[in-house]
Request: fold
Amino acid sequence: MPAVTSDTVLDRFRRVGALLEGHFRLTSGLHSPGYLQCALVLQHPREAEACGVEIASAVRALSPQVVLSPALGGVVIGQEVGRALGVRAIFAERQDGKLMLRRGFSLAPGDRVLVVEDVVTTGGSTRETIEVARAAGATVVGAASIIDRSGGNQTLDVPYHALATIALPTYQPESCPLCAAGTPAVKPGSRT
Ligand SMILES: [Zn+2]
Reply:
């Protein structure tokens, strides 16, 4: 099996059109030289499975007993990591704005929990998911994601592993260097 590197993971993203490079106008109105959409990788079950296997092999030494993901982005990859580890995969979702376990999902005091996300940007939703597990008395042994786009700036208080790290700057349109260079911004996914 070839060694897994950030490059092979990002190549997988490029191959399925989940990582676009150019000049984009994001939904937020900001401009960016890159566009990343994990769902476009995870829509392919074989790709999702491969990402799950790779994360599982990186975190197996933490001996997690349950995978916990925040809905909606973390659900598919959480399921794949749980499958690869041979443990339960559950998810937390929002009710009245607060992330919580629903649907009869439960954690027992002392359960060793791994928090899994598709992409970590600021670490905010990861931290919130960690708190859901701790509130149930569980022990969070680590966190993992396919992509770290925090530029290494997340401040989680548990061991964290990402398959790939990528920095995608965003710019206000009026101060966008790509606009200044005269290339037109396009909406991600639009074919030109
Ligand atoms: Zn621009």
